[in-house]
Amino acid sequence: MHKVEENIERVKARLQTAAVAGGRDPNSVMLLAVSKTRDTKSIQQAAQTGITDFGENYLQEALEKIDILKSLGLKWHFIGPIQSNKTRQIAENFSWVHSIGRLKIAQRLSAQRPSTMAPLNICLQVNIDQEATKAGFSGDEIPLVVEEIAQLPNIKLRGLMTIPAAQHDPIAQRLPFAQLRSLLEKINGSLDNCKKLDTLSMGMSADLEAAIFEQATIVRVGTDIFGPRNKTIL
Ligand SMILES: *Cc1c(COP(=O)(O)O)cnc(C)c1O
Q: Which domains are assigned to the chain?
């Protein structure tokens, strides 16, 4: 087996164990393979194990890989910071965007999503620890933003995403995830059944168990699938 295949086996086992321990169906958690900085060969190896969804942070790098791998029918998720002048290519090439931190970006993505494609799935990024350096909406802003975004035609609001400050203690890791979960529940309490949000994008290599205990539906895993990233790149 390739290293990537072995790693995926291990991550899937962790996901399964956490889901079962939390009383959840393991199939209710999607494993998103974060492939930023990785070559197309590694992505192909991951795809061969049955992974269909890949996360990318840098548009130019992503577009090259999407083109090279187009015959594989993969689903691409944009999870990095978004500049306004990049929205068109994101709207045209991705299935999901997890990192919506400004209303204007959502408006542009909706306007630029080709009508021949399914609506773009989006998550609102929440700066749950209120870190000054981190992108995203504050929790307080979310209810109003949800109302605004519900009006946009070519995007489908699926849920919330967060990247909390790194912590080692498993109990401490759960706190921001619990906050994101209760924010989602609060929003859903005010939405019609057909509009309810079904996605919590939270948990990475170091804290995916904590996120699954708090009802994550997508965990975004890079390092534990593909190995350590070259720190000079990111
Ligand atoms: C890089 C990245 C990940 C993956 O992090 P790992 O610690 O390598 O698993 C997840 N989410 C986002 C938004 C990222 O930028």
A: 3-226 (3.20.20.10)
